[in-house]
Amino acid sequence: MLQPEQVIHNRYQLKQKLGQTAGRQTWLAEDISVANAAVIVKLLAFGDEVQWDDVKLFEREAQVLRQLAHPQIPKYRDSFSIDDRLLWFGLVQDYIPGSSLKQLLAQGTRYTEQQVRQIAADILHVLTYLHELSPPVLHRDIKPSNLICGEGDHIYLVDFGAVQDRAAREGATFTVVGTYGYAPIEQFSGRAVAASDLYALGATLIHLLTGISPSELPQKDLRIQFADRVSLTPRFVQWIDKLAEPDVAKRFQTARQALEALRADSRISPDDKSVARSPSTSQYSELEPSKERSLTPPYNSRIELNQTADELLITIPGASLWNLLMLIPIAIALIVFVPIVTQTIALMTIEFTHILFFLLIVLAISGGVYWELLPTFVQFNRSQFSIYKRRFGFTMTTISGSTADIEDVFHTMKTFRNGKSTCDKRVVTIQTYRGEYFFAKGMSRDECSWLVDAIQSWLDLR
User: Fold this and answer.
1) d(Cα 72, Cα 373) in Å, to the nearest integer?
2) Which of 106, 128, 157, 162 has the fewest CB atoms within 10 Å around its CB?
3) 78 an active-site residue?
4) Which pLDDT belongs to residue 173?
5) 330 pLDDT exceeds 60?
6) Domain 289-318+374-459: which CATH class?
7) What is the pTM of this model?
């Protein structure tokens, strides 16, 4: 049995046992080869209670930690084995003075939205570093006990005992690890991916905000129900919901993506008096009378906007009649070209494939001009949004997606290429976690601002 003040590996003097589970011990120790150097020593005893899979995980943890260099991950120092009647494997890391978030929760600490935002940003920085390594490193056990609040309130990610140094490949499985309540479904089937760590982070943030372990909170369709227990800005609730989305395909896919979405939301004050509501108490039907009418666009605009409680429809006219002038050169080319083609075919002086190629170019240009003349429709309802045109009575959908995926709507300048030249035009952009979609190309700043305000208001993003 290991005892305090005992020196192991001729170097590490054990001071205080910090934790113990079957076959594992964690000690606060002193590295006597370095003056006043406090370290953490993790020990694994190979015996009846420890299987080869445990040893493999322990060795993988040591191997991965050797490669890591991040200020919020305790630095790897050493690994060793001791054959003293019982084979011990040891792993040594720097000691981070502080308390785990689990300890702070147990002491009654309750976290504000601003504090949780900062914790989320800290961990997302670490996860961005880990996930963008080659191969990526997955922690697989993010939870309050593995997050240390250290000096300056910086959050450190510790305990890489469940680490996986590559993402799950199609058809491959890995050792199943994780903590119930924090690990997502796909991880318990041995198929953890980068987004699995994001789910664990989301569940951890829910624990910090509610003070209740996510395993003890009610669920609906596997989704943790917490919004009715907190007073947060609606957008922050939506952001956490996307982190803790049960369906991995609908979750944020990367830590960088989640961090950028959090930053984009930072302009909204956590002191906002609008309190988030749970999905079951949504007030979609309680729209103000002003939302039940056709809104007037800016002066001299031809855009039409109509909205009800259940639908928002924007009609953006195509290019003006002046753009028909673009067809004149094409018409002239066709008038001149047809007789030439007829005569050429008769004389067989040019191959037919060349003629066909030229005709296709003319038709493509004509089709492009005609497409620009068609009005664009942007439609939102409570389940999906779509951007489309109608041609010859048929709807031609160019973009569609889920309304729940929308993170932001804004207008910005976008560069378009026309042959070798480029031009900048203002557009309205719909941002989702899957990507960005734009419309209203070339509209005025006032028109774009008006559209953004109307859409954000209808979607309740403001």
Assistant:
1) 55
2) 106
3) no
4) 47
5) no
6) mainly beta
7) 0.55
